[in-house]
């Protein structure tokens, strides 16, 4: 038995305001559509699973653009044409914030009659002798998972931070969405992650099995795996070589002792070495406050026009230096200091301030 688990396709997401001249479509949005359609065709022809699970956030918004809806119909239609059962649950992005506004899956349901769209309430299906428990993200989803009477088979949910630990051993596989990083906290539970890099924030180290892993430094950044998960005879295997947009951490420069010209030159060289059509972020550490506006943007723009996006991420000098020296603070008579600055305040305000300081002292 083999199935495919994917999630967070976010069809309809637009970025960068760059328009494709032929179609008039946002380039980022258009590439998302093309890649999702190609991915579904590959799943159907190359991986040929017994069934498919989409764990939510099919769309980026509960009111998706027309092109997102037609892409969803075309792409999921590939599975219908190949007679591969497909289960799609609602994610928080698919769900309107108020009842009465309807659900975008209503439209899909009318067109794709063989696909299961789960968006109103939890439903259980039988698939290849497995119970498939699908719990959509709804406005009042709390507690739904606890209400499943049969705690075995496959559980599909959109985002859950803490499942009761006994669940971990009871379900054979827990297919999750919402977290865009492909990872797992327990043996039988997996976040497939998003199929694409949707923000630069997703360029972070993989932390399989340990969500408390310290963030690595910029230099150590690895690329998070993006793709789908194939589960064959109970073994989960990430498949990451599917069509997706290119997003890179292009480089990081420590700007201390660097001139405006050198920094501009560095950014241009990174842009120059980055593939056509890619999204690229350059991080500048320890920039002086007035330096960012002084960069030669005309030159940078010229040198990066082959890219879909060039983001200059600036960490200013002293930005993170809030580390109070506590031993120094101890020597300071806080009340005396407060009194000095509070000469003109009313007695009530003075009393209130004094109480706050006393409280803070106790907490310490
Ligand atoms: Mn999402």
% residues in beta strands: 15-25%
> What Rg, in angstroms, do the CA atoms define?
26 Å
What value does the average pLDDT take? Answer: 86
Order of helices and strands: EHEHEHEEEEHEEEEEHEHEHHH
* Poorly predicted ranges: 205-221
Structure description:
- The strands form 3 sheets. Strands 4-3-2-1-10-11 form a 6-stranded mixed β-sheet, covered by helices on one side.
- It has 3 domains: 2-239, Purple Acid Phosphatase, chain A, domain 2 (4-Layer Sandwich); 247-316; 326-363.
- The termini are far apart.
- It is α/β, with parallel strands linked by helices and 364 residues long.
- It has helices at residues 27-47, 66-81, 105-111, 165-170, 260-272, 297-303, 326-331, 334-341, 347-363; strands at residues 2-6, 51-54, 86-89, 116-118, 123-127, 130-135, 154-158, 173-177, 189-191, 228-232, 235-239, 247-254, 279-287, 309-316.
- Manganese (II) ion is lined by residues 8, 57, 91, 93, 178.
Name some characteristics of this structure.
five-stranded mixed β-sheet; six-stranded mixed β-sheet; 364 residues; binds manganese (II) ion; Purple Acid Phosphatase, chain A, domain 2; 3 domains; 14 strands; 21% strand
Q: What's the layout of helices and strands?
A:
Elements lengths: L1 E5 L20 H21 L3 E4 L11 H16 L4 E4 L15 H7 L4 E3 L4 E5 L2 E6 L18 E5 L6 H6 L2 E5 L11 E3 L36 E5 L2 E5 L7 E8 L5 H13 L6 E9 L9 H7 L5 E8 L9 H6 L2 H8 L5 H17 L1
Parallel strand pairs: 1-2, 2-3, 3-4, 6-7, 7-8, 8-9, 12-13, 13-14
Antiparallel strand pairs: 1-10, 5-6, 10-11
Helix pairs in contact: 1-2, 5-6, 8-9
The structure holds manganese (II) ion (MN).
Manganese (II) ion binds next to loops.
């Amino acid at each position: 038995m083999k199935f495919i688990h994917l999630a967070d396709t976010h069809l309809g997401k637009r970025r960068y305001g760059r328009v494709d001249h032929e179609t008039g479509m946002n380039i980022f949005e258009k590439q998302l559509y093309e890649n999702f359609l190609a991915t579904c065709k590959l799943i159907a022809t190359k991986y040929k699973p017994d069934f498919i699970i989409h764990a939510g956030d099919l769309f980026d918004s509960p009111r998706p653009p027309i092109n997102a809806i037609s892409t969803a119909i075309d792409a999921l239609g590939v599975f219908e044409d190949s007679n591969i059962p497909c289960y799609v649950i609602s994610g928080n992005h698919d769900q309107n914030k108020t009842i009465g506004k309807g659900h975008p899956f209503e439209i899909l349901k009318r067109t794709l009659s063989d696909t299961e769209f789960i968006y109103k309430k939890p439903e259980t299906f039988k698939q290849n002798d497995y119970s498939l428990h699908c719990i959509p993200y709804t406005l009042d989803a709390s507690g739904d998972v606890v209400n499943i009477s049969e705690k075995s088979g496959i559980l599909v949910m959109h985002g859950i931070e803490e499942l009761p630990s006994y669940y971990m051993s009871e379900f054979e596989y827990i297919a999750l969405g919402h977290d865009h990083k492909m990872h797992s906290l327990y043996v039988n539970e997996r976040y497939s992650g998003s199929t694409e890099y949707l923000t630069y924030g997703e360029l972070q180290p993989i932390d399989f099995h340990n969500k408390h892993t310290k963030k690595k430094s910029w230099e150590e950044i690895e690329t998070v795996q993006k793709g789908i998960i194939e589960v064959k005879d109970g073994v989960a295997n990430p498949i990451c070589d599917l069509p997706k947009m290119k997003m890179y951490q292009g480089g990081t420069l420590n700007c201390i002792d660097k001139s405006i010209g050198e920094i501009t030159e560095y950014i241009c060289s990174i842009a120059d070495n980055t593939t056509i059509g890619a999204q690229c972020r350059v991080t500048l550490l320890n920039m002086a406050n007035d330096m960012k506006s002084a960069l030669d943007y005309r030159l940078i723009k010229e040198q990066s026009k082959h890219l879909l996006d060039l983001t200059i991420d600036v960490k200013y000098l002293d930005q993170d230096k809030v580390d109070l020296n506590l031993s120094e603070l101890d020597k300071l008579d806080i009340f005396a200091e407060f009194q000095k600055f509070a000469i003109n305040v009313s007695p009530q305000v003075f009393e209130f301030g004094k109480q706050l300081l006393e409280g803070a002292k106790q907490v310490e």
